[in-house]
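Hey,
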Amino acid sequence: MARQFAVEDGNLDRRSITTSRTVSYKDIDLTFAKKPNNDIFKKEDAAAVKQSVKNILLTNPGEKPFRPFYGAGLTQYLFENDDGFDELEIQDTIFESVSRDEPRARVLGVKVTMDPDNNSMKVRVAFKVLNTSTVEEISIDLTRLR
């Protein structure tokens, strides 16, 4: 069965039809700061995706209602003895959780620096916002409180 095109379309059966769509990402700003008109601020485009990735990294599985596997659960690594393999395991966890929970981002790289003497770690995640050429980086310091 051949595709039928109008004569005005030209030779469309030999060329692929390409379309583009501009997608804008919008989320509520989780600080819930108020504008002067009593409305709340919103995050747009790369800032919205960056906020979402940060939220994934700081959430433990089971904390979000109706989404039992949402989150990276990085705080569990603060309570373990450092055996040298934690950095690789944390990197894998971040890659998995961001790719599973945030379809608007693709992780490009993860750097984890453990500080077992102070029960803390520093996590840097570089990711690309899909449908744009924007590359963002987020840095989070996690410290054990007790």
